[in-house]
Amino acid sequence: MCKVANTWGLSDALDSWRGLRHPLWCMNTYIRPVDSISRQAVQAPVRVKYCLYARKSTESEERQVLSIDSQIKEMLQLADREGLEVVELKRESHSAKETGTRPVFNEIVEELRAGKYNGILTWAPDRISRNAGDLGKIVDLMDAGGLQEIRTYSQSFRNNPNEKFLLMILGSQAKLENDNRGVNVKRGLRTRCEMGLRPGVAPTGYFNEKLAEKKCHAVIDPVRAPIIKQMFEKVANDKWSGRKVHHWLKFDLNFKSKGNKNLSLGNIYIILQNPFYYGTFEYPEKSGNWYEGKHEPLITKELYDAVQAQLKRDHIVRSDIKEFAFTKLMTCGSCQSGVTADEKFKKLKDGTSNRYVYYGCTRHKDKACKNGYVREEELITQMVKIMDEVDFNKIAMREKFEAEVERLRKFQHSFLHTKDTKPEKDIDLCAYAKYILKDGSLTEKRELLLCIKSKLTLTNGVLTLEK
Question: Which of 223, 250, 420, 435 has the fewest CB neighbours in a 10 Å radius?
Answer without folding.
Answer: 420
